[in-house]
Design a protein that fits this description.
single chain; alpha/beta; TIM Barrel; two-stranded antiparallel sheet; 8 helices; globular; binds 1,3,4-trihydroxy-5-OXO-cyclohexanecarboxylic acid; Aldolase_TIM; 3-dehydroquinate dehydratase activity; aromatic amino acid biosynthesis; lyase
Length: 249
């Protein structure tokens, strides 16, 4: 069994843990969502920094403290999703790197780093995270389609070669075959890589991949607080996913 420990939480490829994104655009919204998530008690939270409406002037340390106050024991993943990969951040590579460097100096547990940026940016970001003891989730999002099998497998491998601690691939399926391919390649990547993986096919056609983690080996499945706060298409709500996971596991 492949495992990775983040503080008291053990992630493994047998039973996926559930992460709930915080998508608040303002400090007040973050506080409200964090308090709502506190009552749900998910395994992890993901703070989607790119949802902040005034990211330039945001006080990240202050906002993070608000999350920590509500969720003192819950591991926090920090994510800056760029517009190219389906998020809202559309600034340059240097600004991306500076933000990552700021985030890894704060009390987060894991950081999402998009590997399709220039290599020097990616490797500097990974080193910065590791120098402060933060685990890196290498991340690749394709919102238009599902690349061919070879490309998908190469993405997983690239993340391992870069020194990421977890390799994550998210795609948009155009049909059932794409979803099944993503599952098959995820399973293969999980068998062949030494690091754990996370994968999902987004949208309705891919929804099953959020549940079939014991087949794919994906160690985390993302679920929204409710249908109005999805951080990607096709997410189930936390209550729905937890119920299904409890039944099938
Ligand atoms: O990478 C992921 C997965 C995700 O895109 C999803 O499809 O659930 C949601 C994002 O918030 C997260 O960063």
């Amino acid at each position: 069994m492949k495992t990775i420990k983040v503080h008291d939480l053990t992630l493994n490829d047998q039973v996926a843990k559930i992460a709930v994104p915080i998508t608040g655009g303002t400090t007040a919204e973050i506080k409200e969502q964090a308090s709502q998530i506190n009552s749900m008690a998910p395994d992890l939270v993901e703070w989607r920094i790119d949802f902040l409406v005034e990211l330039q002037s945001a006080n990240l340390a202050f906002d993070l403290k608000i999350i920590r106050d509500q969720l003192p024991m819950t591991p926090i993943i920090a994510t800056i999703r760029t517009s190219h990969e389906g998020g809202h951040f559309d600034q340059d590579d240097q600004t991306y790197l500076q933000l990552i460097q700021t985030l890894v100096s704060l009390p987060i547990d894991l950081i999402d780093i998009e590997v399709d940026r220039p290599r020097s940016i990616v490797t500097t970001a990974i080193s910065a995270a590791h120098s402060t003891g933060i685990e890196v989730i290498g991340s690749y999002h394709q919102f238009q389609n599902t690349p061919d099998d070879h490309t998908l497998l190469a993405k997983f491998n690239q993340m391992q070669q870069l020194g990421c601690d977890i390799a994550k691939v998210a795609v948009m399926p155009n049909d059932a075959t794409d979803t099944l391919r993503l599952m098959q390649i995820s399973n293969q990547a999980n068998q062949t890589l030494s690091i754990p993986i996370i994968s999902m096919a987004m949208g309705k056609t891919g929804m099953l991949t959020r549940i079939s983690t014991m087949l794919t080996g994906s160690i985390i499945s993302f679920a929204s607080t409710d249908q109005h706060h999805q951080s990607a298409p096709g997410q189930l709500s936390f209550a729905q996913l937890r119920t299904i996971m409890q039944i099938i596991n």
